[in-house]
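**User:** Once you have settled down, spend some time on the protein underneath, comparing sequence with structure tokens, and judge whether sequence predicts the tokens.
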Amino acid sequence: MGKRKKSSRKPAPSRQKVPLDTAFTCLFCHHDKSVTVRLDRKEGVAHLVCRVCDQRYQSKVNHLTEAIDIYSEWIDAADAAQSNQAPRRPVASTSRPVPAPASVEEDSDDE
């Protein structure tokens, strides 16, 4: 026969959610915690501002976006601007291969 269960078993401790940072290091002036990110979910816009060098960045947000995501987009946009490329947002991948562009060959008729 098995043992009886204890009726006074304590509940497991709940995990506390650790808040993510909202202040970061500036890419341009290198001051620690001078960049702040404000998310306006109602408007769907995030504002990133450095308090020291007044560098600004603005991006679209959704319900899953956090401050670190906007900071990462800012880093990517700064790298893209430095290498003279347009900033790229991540695109959903597909399992289908991209079709090769049709080559346009002119028919040369000898008459």
Remarks:
- The CA atoms of residues 28 and 49 lie 12 Å apart.
- The chain has a mean pLDDT of 82.
- Residues 67-82 form the longest helix (16 residues).
- Helices lie at 67-82.
